[in-house]
């Protein structure tokens, strides 16, 4: 069974948990999959090196408050990515639950830009420990991806979560390029802490705005791999409801809102006739601008990330994070994080948990006295984001022709980067179909 099949299985379970109704998944690849065992034998046949103590022991997490008992090890802490300016990125790494040496390494990135992979990916979505609804503890996630892979969650770029720079002007330079470069430095420096993962089969995964980060980092790795001393065994990328191509993503958002009865025929028609999403400033057209405002206004009342679940009414929860959802349009073409949904109040619980002194100390984020101020998304990063590729489709083409595998999956209750956006974006690749469309059942039924 290949890693992709296994991931496929886990995502199915995970999304059923979040009551997503339909998954569209596409394998974009010209190469047949190598079986996992043959890949891994390349590096570990006979003499796989066992993690020796000392290399990374300082980062081993031993007494995280509220953590359920588990039989795998996990590590958290900082990796310096630029010494001159004092930039350090925070990571949380969970070894696979069983046979970590046999399993690939997967780097996970959340989007925003400005949102935390620890707050979303690790503790609300696919990590082994989910924040519990009291903000005091954690509960075990039976659908954690570390059942099948060694999972590395990175808070990227600086300014996100616990990650920081000692040079404040760095925060004015944030964009796709700096993010990819720092993530690339992170990987090499992280491998120095964890040398036994240096030659491991490697994948990059992420969702939402990481739909840009993930291919961009993959391209950088691919380019630098020409130097054997820098080689990283990147095999593919996995993307969930990813931002891919701005024009198609906007068109998908609008058509999705119309087809799910969020907006009227008239509003939809105005957008169709007045918006040129390919233009560098679609909002210059006043009719377009007003009609798109109308779409976003409707989503004030509905959780755009999860159409059919409730919004969070708890006054203690993240009231200011809510503004993220609709503050997007004029200042930026960016789309914020993807997943709300299952329990939208979780953002607030995560914030309470990661600001506890004993939690920060256990994760090596601070000494427990001089606390770091952690928030799930950094609005300033989101609003100031200067450099964003309008489309990563050219990168897809390059990676595909280099033989890398790309898996795109979509939950169909996300209105922010909806399945329609993905269909519009990917159709421009005009790839041949190797396996025709088929419905996908869970336990012999549609998951509702
Ligand atoms: C550190 O970051 C600064 C600013 O982003 C950059 O100019 C410099 O080249 C970086 N240093 C190294 C060693 O990468
Ligand atoms: C940032 O500055 C603090 C305080 O001087 C120092 O302890 C820390 O090591 C610096 N971080 C980096 C990545 O250089
Ligand atoms: C967790 O998943 C396993 C299968 O992977 C299943 O047998 C078990 O019942 C699940 N436990 C819970 C509490 O859902
Ligand atoms: C954007 O332009 C490309 C190239 O001309 C075209 O194929 C695509 O359909 C356009 N997308 C939208 C949403 O208008």
Describe the 3D structure.
- There is one protein chain.
- The protein is of the alpha/beta class and 448 residues long.
- The chain has a domain at 74-244 and 388-447: Rossmann fold (3-Layer(aba) Sandwich), CATH 3.40.50.1820.
- The protein is built from 14 helices and eleven strands.
- It has helices spanning 3-17, 36-44, 118-125, 176-193, 210-224, 246-259, 265-274, 286-298, 319-322, 346-354, 357-362, 379-384, 393-401, 419-427, and strands at 23-28, 74-82, 87-94, 105-109, 129-131, 138-140, 150-155, 164-165, 202-208, 234-242, 405-411.
- Strands 1, 2, 3, 4, 7, 8, 9, 10 and 11 form a nine-stranded mixed beta sheet that branches. It has a two-stranded antiparallel ribbon with strand order 5-6.
- Strand 5 (129-131) and strand 6 (138-140) form a beta hairpin.
- The longest helix has 18 residues, at 176-193.
- The radius of gyration is 21 Å and the shape is globular.
- It binds 2-acetamido-2-deoxy-beta-D-glucopyranose (4 copies).
- The site of one 2-acetamido-2-deoxy-beta-D-glucopyranose has 3 residues, from loops.
Heteromolecules bound: 2-acetamido-2-deoxy-beta-D-glucopyranose
- Uncertain regions spanning at least 5 consecutive residues: 1-54, 315-332, 337-341
CATH fold naming of the domain at 74-244 and 388-447 = Rossmann fold
**Mind telling me which CATH architecture of the domain at 74-244 and 388-447 this is?**
3-Layer(aba) Sandwich
CATH superfamily of the domain at 74-244 and 388-447: Alpha/Beta hydrolase fold, catalytic domain
Please tell me what the overall shape is.
globular
* Gyration radius, in Å: 21 Å
Overall pLDDT confidence = 83
Q: What top-tier CATH class of the domain at 74-244 and 388-447 fits best?
A: Alpha Beta
Derived structural class:
alpha/beta
Protein name: Carboxypeptidase
EC number: 3.4.16.-
Main location: secreted
GO cellular component, one term: extracellular region
